[in-house]
């Protein structure tokens, strides 16, 4: 079990739940990093007494320095601060739960420093999977998945002979708030409609990604890197109740599922206590109360983000960085009510078709450039 955490994205949904797990298990926190919610970050500093904290937004970092000047904590800022928190000497686990592409460089810093990572920043693997997995294996760094589906697969794989015995990964998807809707019905949906998720309480970006099914697309790519499987071996099934968090199928067609009440504190805690199991505050699963579990084929036509992600994974190289950047920019515009919901999927496809990817070598430089181009492409479309 890990003893000293660095928590990046500590004021977000996963970050606050990570600190909740740490609090209950009595695990220390030596570093924190947040974007700009310095009121909550200050409360976290006062409670967990980390040695350092990083504020991504430089404009508010100075305000935090003043408000915690009675504390023995160093306040850093910007991407350097985030990377510093990601490689902080005393940490034995870096919990990377920042949202979006901004999580890539801290992940690489953690790997360079030889730190194990509890990863919930899926964009890290979507944009930079090739680079991240190569570096992690050369440094002997373990990446523990925190995303509920990937934690489920990881849990199912415990005791498995090898990944070679896997014949399929079956990722479950809740279907989000727009399950069963037609394209016509999605024409005029609002930000508020998209943010109304049936089963999970999450941040705005990932909730919109769930509504568009881009989240599942990103998770297919994430699964491909984490478990070394090609895109055709990763299936998606809609499972409205979110009780089965994902499944694996072995070559003998035996299927293993991981189940539980939908609560992120289970996957977060498992990444921290692995390979141990500890009591958690999560409610026990009562299958009698759930009654029945249902499954459906995803609607690939109405939710083109899902097929875009599979296509990008098949194309390889920088394609996944492009669709991720295009999606982040499109979601940002949608959340600001500057574009209709359906444009998100269209732009993601267009960006993949139209942006020339050069020689496709997946270096950090090339990933950042592909990301920049994809965002600029989307912004030029309104
Ligand atoms: Mn997930």
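^ Assign residues to that structure.
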């Amino acid at each position: 079990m890990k003893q000293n955490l660095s928590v990046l994205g500590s004021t977000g949904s996963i970050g606050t739940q990570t600190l909740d797990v740490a609090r209950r298990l009595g695990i220390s926190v030596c570093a924190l990093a947040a974007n700009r919610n310095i009121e909550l970050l200050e409360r976290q500093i006062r409670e967990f007494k980390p040695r350092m904290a990083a504020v991504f937004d430089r404009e508010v970092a100075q305000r935090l320095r003043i408000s915690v000047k009675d504390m023995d904590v160093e306040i850093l800022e910007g991407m350097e601060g985030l990377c510093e928190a990601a490689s902080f000497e005393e940490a034995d686990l870096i919990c990377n739960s920042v949202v979006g592409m901004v999580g890539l460089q801290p992940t690489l810093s953690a790997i360079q420093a030889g730190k194990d990572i509890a990863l919930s920043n899926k964009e890290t693997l979507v944009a930079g999977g090739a680079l991240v997995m190569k570096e992690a294996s050369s440094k002997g760094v373990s990446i523990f998945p925190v995303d509920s589906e990937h934690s489920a697969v990881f849990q199912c794989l415990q005791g498995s002979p090898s990944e070679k015995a896997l014949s399929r990964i079956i990722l479950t998807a809740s279907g989000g708030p727009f399950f069963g809707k037609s394209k016509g019905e999605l024409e005029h949906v609002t930000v508020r409609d998209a943010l109304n998720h049936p089963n999970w309480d999450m941040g705005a970006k990932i909730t919109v990604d769930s509504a568009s099914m881009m989240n599942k697309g990103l998770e297919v790519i994430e699964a491909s890197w984490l478990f070394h499987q090609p895109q055709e071996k990763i299936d998606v099934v809609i499972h409205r109740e979110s009780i089965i968090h994902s499944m694996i199928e072995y070559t003998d067609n035996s299927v293993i599922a991981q189940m539980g009440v939908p609560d992120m504190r289970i996957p977060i805690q498992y990444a921290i206590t692995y390979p141990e199991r500890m009591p958690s505050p999560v409610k026990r699963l009562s299958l009698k109360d759930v009654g029945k579990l249902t499954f459906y084929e995803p609607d690939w036509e109405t939710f083109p983000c899902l097929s875009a992600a599979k296509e990008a994974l098949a194309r390889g190289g920088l394609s996944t960085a492009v669709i991720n950047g295009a999606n982040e920019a499109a979601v940002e515009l949608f959340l600001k009510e500057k574009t209709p919901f359906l444009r998100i999927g269209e732009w993601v496809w267009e960006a993949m078709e139209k942006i020339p990817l050069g020689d496709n070598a997946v270096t950090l430089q090339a990933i950042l450039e592909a990301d920049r181009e994809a965002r600029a492409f989307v912004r030029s479309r309104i």
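The first strand starts at residue 4 and ends at 8.
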